[in-house]
Design brief:
The protein contains 22 helices and 14 strands. The chain is α+β, with helices and mostly antiparallel strands. Strand 9 (about 420) and strand 10 form a beta hairpin. It is globular and about 85 Å long.
Length: about 600
């Protein structure tokens, strides 16, 4: 970014120098076509503007409010409004309503390059012009993907619009059908694939980045066609094709997704640098800038003022430089890996542990690399997570969680880490408190992307610089597996899933495999990468998964008279409920845009 800022300054400086010697020059706040399209530095700076605006749902992103901009972003993680995580902020309603994303200004910037670069092609080698044109097609497809997954059909604008040169009636374009927008995205990505080279500089697109995005987008379209045809809200927008895709289109989109994913085979690979320790290998996958799995990344730095706050807000103040955590993995997410954890004996009584860390023994390495369990360590400190103390405990776990818990009179909770009971700290420094929400609600913390190499003093707000991996090869394999299952190719799906499971330290899939097997693997592998919200929507199961739903915690207690620990599967202490209405499968067209362009009506159903 420093280099790109320098390039922009250089262009402006050139204009200023000319202004010192001539009076008939353009205003200094206008960079003309010749300043951009006559030299490589100008185009590089122009492309940087486009890439900076790409709607990558990274560390900053939240479903509502500030959207892609900085501002309390980790407190509003999308996973925390759909059961992957829980936290005190954001609601399903707020997230589903969106934040008015309407990037047609950015699309115009791309279209301007597509129109004007060919006019200046004589200034450059053909392969450079082709690469830049390919990147522009890729970026335009990325913008439209962000639009169509939110609103369904939107206006397809291929040319630069000019106001006031064009009459307002020409600019007030109608929505295109949803299926046509998906096909437009596919066409742009095909153009990008043909024009771009096989390799690119870091954080820029090449032909295989385009193929990866196509696998993601076409899989989304295929599932909308298949499942959205059965689970939808009726209305004028649906009747006119602005939302919804004919079911007959599903297999065609699935085939495109599979074909695109297959193109990356042999060009990227799963991260396997430390397979002698699969837990550590999976941790480092998200921190190693040289990972062969990374397809498209976004980088951050302190000097460019782009650093983020993942380290400060994914773990508690005890582990950070006065950071605050607000989003915690649910027990339901953890149970995706191996079902119920071994916390109850065959007779129903809670299993006793010598320490909380014992529970981690034998669990899948990928799970332990994704979530911090009670007893885990970070920066030389232990997650001493404890909900409270029992003087004594008798009976079953189920009875203790019922309406009349038999051991309630022996239980001690606290809202402060300073409270002691018979010389023992009632709750841990990492929770679980009865007061406030800056410590875990569920017994777990997010581990994925947390940089264990950073000193605690370096883990404050806007001090983290690890890269966000927007696309990685594991996702492409999952796209391929899901598309294969939808097309009836179970053999390929099993092969791909077992590649991922081997890297994860999980046993291979054997026997019958279903679409739910593939979906569950996706939820585990891509946890907290801001995909689950969209997956629930495209599978059209969000209204079933989130139906006045409350999620669970795994809460450790110390048994004083036994000097042992137990875990109870309880509702998370604040007992938030989550409900997804069917109309939320699409966001409403932003009101301001409807006011400027009545041809965007009808709005999406029930808005």
């Amino acid at each position: 970014m420093k280099q790109l800022q320098y390039i922009i300054i250089t262009i402006l400086a050139g204009c200023m120098l000319a202004a010192c010697h001539k009076l008939d020059v353009a205003p200094l706040n206008v960079i003309r076509d010749k300043d951009v399209f006559n030299n490589e530095n100008g185009i590089t700076a122009y492309m940087a503007t486009i890439y900076k605006a790409l709607p990558i749902e990274d560390f900053y992103y939240r479903n509502e409010g500030s959207g892609f901009n900085r501002g309390w972003e980790q407190f509003y993680h999308p996973g925390a409004i759909c059961g992957e995580l829980v936290g005190p902020y954001g609601s399903t309603y707020d997230a589903a309503g969106g934040f008015g994303y309407w990037p047609y200004g950015d699309i115009r910037t791309v279209n301007y390059l597509l129109e004007n670069l060919p006019k200046n092609a004589v200034n450059f080698a053909k392969e450079k012009v082709d690469a830049w044109m390919g990147e522009a097609y890729f970026c335009r497809a990325y913008f439209y993907f962000a639009l169509v997954k939110r609103y369904g059909g939107v206006p397809i604008i291929k040319n630069v619009q000019n106001y006031p040169e064009q009459p307002i009636e020409e600019l007030q374009v109608h929505r295109d059908k949803e299926v046509d927008v998906w096909k437009f995205i596919a066409a742009d990505l095909d153009s990008a694939y043909l024009l771009m080279p096989e390799k690119s500089v870091r954080a820029r697109a090449n032909r295989y980045v385009a193929a990866a995005l196509k696998s993601r987008a076409m899989l989304y379209a295929g599932t909308i066609a298949k499942y959205g045809s059965a689970n939808y809200v009726a209305g004028d927008a649906r009747d006119q094709g602005y939302v919804g895709i004919p079911a007959s289109e599903a297999d065609g989109f699935f085939k495109q997704a599979w074909d695109a994913a297959k193109l990356l085979e042999g060009h990227y690979d799963l991260y396997k640098k430390k397979m002698d320790n699969k837990e550590q290998n999976y941790v480092d996958l998200f921190l190693d800038k040289d990972s062969p799995e990374n397809i498209l990344v976004r980088d951050y730095s302190l000097t460019s003022n782009t650093a983020h706050s993942w380290d400060a807000t994914m773990t508690c103040r005890y582990m950070t430089a006065d950071g605050l955590s607000r989003a915690y993995p649910t027990l339901e997410f953890v149970e995706r890996f191996a079902g119920a954890l071994p916390i109850v004996n065959p007779d129903g009584t809670p299993r006793r542990f010598n320490n909380t860390a014992e529970l981690m023994q034998g669990l899948e390495p990928r799970l332990l690399a994704t979530v911090y369990f009670p007893g885990a360590t970070l920066r030389g400190r232990q997650f001493d997570t404890q909900r409270g103390i029992y003087d004594q405990f008798s009976g079953t776990a189920a009875s203790e969680l019922g309406l009349n818990p038999p051991n309630a009179q022996y239980r001690h909770l606290s809202g402060t880490t300073d409270a002691l009971y018979q010389g023992k700290r009632i709750i841990g420094f990492t929770g679980v408190s009865t007061n406030g929400d800056d410590m875990t609600r569920t017994g777990f913390y997010v581990r994925k992307y947390v940089d264990y190499n950073r000193d605690q003093s370096q883990c404050g707000l806007y001090m983290s610089t690890q890269s966000w991996i927007d696309m990685r090869y594991a996702e492409v394999l999952l796209n391929r597996a899901e598309a294969a299952m939808e097309l009836g190719n179970t053999t390929d799906a099993v092969t791909v899933i077992n590649q991922l499971r081997d890297r994860a330290g999980a046993p291979p899939v054997t026997g019958a495999i279903t679409i739910d097997t593939v979906r569950n693997e996706r939820c585990k592998e891509l946890a907290f990468e801001k995909q689950y919200w969209w997956d629930l929507r495209r599978w059209r199961i969000a209204d079933k998964v989130l139906d006045n739903t409350r999620f669970h915690a795994l809460l450790p207690y110390y048994i004083l008279n036994e000097d042992k620990y137990i875990f109870l599967r309880e509702l998370e202490p604040f007992q938030r409920s989550y409900t997804f209405e069917k109309k939320y499968y699409y966001e409403p067209i932003p009101g301001g845009e409807l006011g400027k362009n009545p041809n965007l009506y009808p709005n999406n159903p029930n808005y």
